[in-house]
């Protein structure tokens, strides 16, 4: 089956059909392109949905995610975010493997089709020209034959007329011979052109047109194969992400299976347990006896004067029973308006926060001390006396925080029913200052209440200061950039105010180019063009074992 032999006379229809094939291919490209846009839009909506229901930081919602059901929901949101990513992969792969590829192929196909049909039209024009030449030769031969017949008849007529002179007869005979010769010449020319036309026509219908149509047929078949391959790719792109989507769904199922209702119930107990004992039986009050009416300690309806004040560990409570309204005033500093168990948690959290602050200030004090030692050893880097004021301020802050921690530890000890005892961490942090005179824990516990039952104490405002850095010489400005020997993460924010130092923000990751040489300073770099020194205690260093110049610590 060949278009060149079967469709030799369907040039125009083939031209329309091949154009229709290109239109179908462009329609399929448009379909895939719209599918990729839908996938991107769907992925964006899924990501926005996942982000919308993520817990807000430092909010009550974040506290709720300690329950296993909420953790499972958070895992579901994260898995949906990954699920959206797979739809983005589908869009990207369809764009690169189908849309872009087919668009380029369509342009090549149009050029090839244009070239083939141009050759076809050229062959048509050539055969039409040959046909016109044949028709022109045929008409000239016909005309010359008629002219020769008329000239012959005129000669015969003149020859038969006795009244015509011999000269006229001779002239008519010569004219007839001329016309006869012209007819013979036209006949020979017509025969030659006809033979040539037949040869051209045979080559046109048996060689040129079949070759051109064969190329068009091969072009069209390649188009059909190409669109079929694209459809397979379309399905394969979807198939490739099915395993990953399956893992996302498996993750959601696993998160759902991790839900523990007993654990959540226990968390509710820990969150809301008051620590109160249930109320006891109410004693019977006999008003028929002429005796002094007594009021039960457990009576809910007792008068204000006769009701004894209940105490828990020597501390009056603003809430006696679970169904009595709690005081909605300002929360006291010692959290005395909370139930015992909740108060213990609040105090423990406060103690932990203060210990972290003490540790941070201690690290800052150590860094300033090391900086001062560097100044003492290298006076050209800075004046040691310039750090005394800052060191004093940091030391005072540590003492204030330590006293504050002692105060809350005393309240915590009171709630837990034990003597005030400082944690090992607090003892370690304040070991350098044990010889100094401080307010005792006993006074702190006894004098914390004002007449209305709330704690009052004048607190001095703490000024926030940044650690001073040494004024380094520009000794490394003209050196070649040092290679990085590792990375570091800033534990605290440091303001590099002096020359040679660099500012860092807590949590920032930078490159280490020179480790601490015993002077308490580490040299770091940011973005290949900004480097300087920071206190070693302000960063956590991760050295690359393979880096040149890195030391191995045991």
TrEMBL record:
Keyword terms, alphabetized: Cell membrane, Coiled coil, Cytoplasm, Cytoskeleton, Endocytosis, Lipid-binding, Membrane, Phosphoprotein, SH3 domain
PROSITE patterns: F_BAR, REM_1, SH3
Primary location group: membrane
Residue span, REM-1 domain: 337-414
GO biological process, one term: endocytosis
Region ranges (Disordered): 294-314, 421-466
Stated family: Belongs to the FNBP1 family.
Name listed for the protein in its UniProt record: Formin-binding protein 1 isoform X17
Biological source species: Mus caroli (Ryukyu mouse)
Phylogenetic classification of the source organism: Eukaryota, Metazoa, Chordata, Craniata, Vertebrata
The gene coding this protein: Fnbp1
């Amino acid at each position: 089956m060949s278009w060149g032999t079967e469709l030799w006379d369907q040039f125009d229809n083939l031209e329309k059909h091949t154009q229709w094939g290109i239109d179908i291919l462009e329609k399929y490209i448009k379909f895939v392109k719209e599918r990729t846009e839908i996938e991107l839009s769907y992925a964006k909506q899924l990501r926005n949905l996942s982000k919308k229901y993520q817990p807000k930081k430092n909010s009550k919602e974040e506290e709720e995610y300690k329950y296993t059901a909420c953790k499972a929901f958070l895992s579901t949101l994260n898995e949906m975010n990954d699920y959206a990513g797979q739809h983005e992969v589908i869009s990207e792969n369809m764009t690169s493997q189908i849309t872009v590829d087919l668009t380029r192929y369509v342009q090549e196909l149009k050029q090839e089709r244009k070239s083939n049909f141009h050759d076809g039209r050229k062959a048509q024009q050539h055969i039409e020209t040959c046909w016109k030449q044949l028709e022109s030769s045929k008409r000239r031969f016909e005309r010359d034959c008629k002219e020769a017949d008329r000239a012959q008849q005129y000669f015969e007529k003149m020859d038969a007329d006795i009244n015509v002179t011999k000269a006229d007869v001779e002239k008519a005979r010569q004219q007839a011979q001329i016309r006869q010769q012209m007819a013979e010449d036209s006949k020979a020319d017509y025969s030659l052109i006809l033979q040539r036309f037949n040869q051209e026509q045979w080559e046109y219908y048996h060689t040129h047109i079949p070759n051109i149509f064969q190329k068009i047929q091969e072009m069209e078949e390649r188009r059909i194969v190409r669109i079929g391959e694209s459809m397979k790719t379309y399905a394969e792109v979807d198939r490739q992400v099915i395993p990953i989507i399956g893992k996302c769904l498996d993750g959601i199922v696993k998160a759902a299976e991790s839900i523990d209702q007993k654990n959540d119930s226990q968390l509710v107990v820990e969150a809301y347990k008051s620590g109160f004992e249930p109320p006891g039986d109410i004693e019977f009050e006999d008003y028929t006896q002429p005796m002094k009416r007594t009021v039960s300690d457990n009576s809910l309806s007792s008068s204000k004067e006769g009701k004894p004040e209940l105490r828990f560990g020597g501390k009056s409570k603003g809430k006696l029973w679970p169904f009595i309204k709690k005081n909605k005033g300002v929360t006291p500093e010692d959290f005395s308006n909370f139930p015992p168990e909740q108060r213990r948690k609040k105090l423990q959290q406060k103690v932990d926060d203060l210990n972290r602050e003490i540790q941070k200030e201690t690290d800052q004090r150590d860094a300033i001390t090391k900086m001062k030692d560097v100044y003492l050893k290298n006076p050209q880097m800075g004046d040691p006396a310039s750090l005394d004021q800052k060191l004093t301020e940091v030391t005072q802050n540590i003492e204030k925080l330590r006293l504050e921690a002692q105060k809350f530890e005393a309240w915590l000890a009171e709630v837990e029913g034990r003597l005030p005892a400082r944690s090992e961490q607090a003892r370690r942090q304040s070991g350098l200052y044990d010889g100094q005179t401080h307010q005792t824990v006993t006074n702190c516990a006894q004098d914390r209440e004002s007449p209305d039952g709330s704690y009052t104490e004048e607190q001095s405002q703490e000024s926030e200061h940044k650690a001073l850095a040494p004024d380094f010489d520009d000794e490394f400005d003209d050196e070649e950039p040092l290679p990085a020997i590792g990375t570091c993460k800033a534990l605290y924010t440091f303001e590099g105010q002096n020359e040679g130092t660099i500012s860092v923000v807590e949590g920032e990751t930078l490159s280490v180019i020179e480790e601490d040489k015993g002077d308490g300073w580490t040299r770091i770099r940011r973005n290949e063009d900004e480097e300087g020194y920071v206190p070693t205690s302000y960063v956590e260093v991760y050295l690359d074992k393979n880096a040149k110049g890195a030391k191995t610590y045991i």
